[in-house]
């Protein structure tokens, strides 16, 4: 592409993540940052989802933790859902539950409808 912009980056990151190529998706996210493209909430959902599907828990936590201090962006319930999902996928159910309980945003259906919604009443 002659000019790469946030929408094109988000699309390719999301596509790789959805099709089981999480490692490529996070490499692309890192490339985007190196090129000086400022991420938005949508690209964070894409990269966090890719981390979830690829089992990249540590990397996903690092991205999630970078949202506010590095980019001035508050995490929304969609970001928390992704983190709860990847914590649950690797069996860190207590950590997922702690995160749900610490959410500054109101809990919504997707968090409790995740495969780990049983955490609602531990």
UniProtKB/TrEMBL annotation:
This is Pentatricopeptide repeat-containing protein. PANTHER family: PENTATRICOPEPTIDE REPEAT-CONTAINING PROTEIN. The keyword Ribosomal protein does not apply. PPR repeats lie at residues 5-39. Keywords: Repeat. Pfam families: PPR, PPR_2.
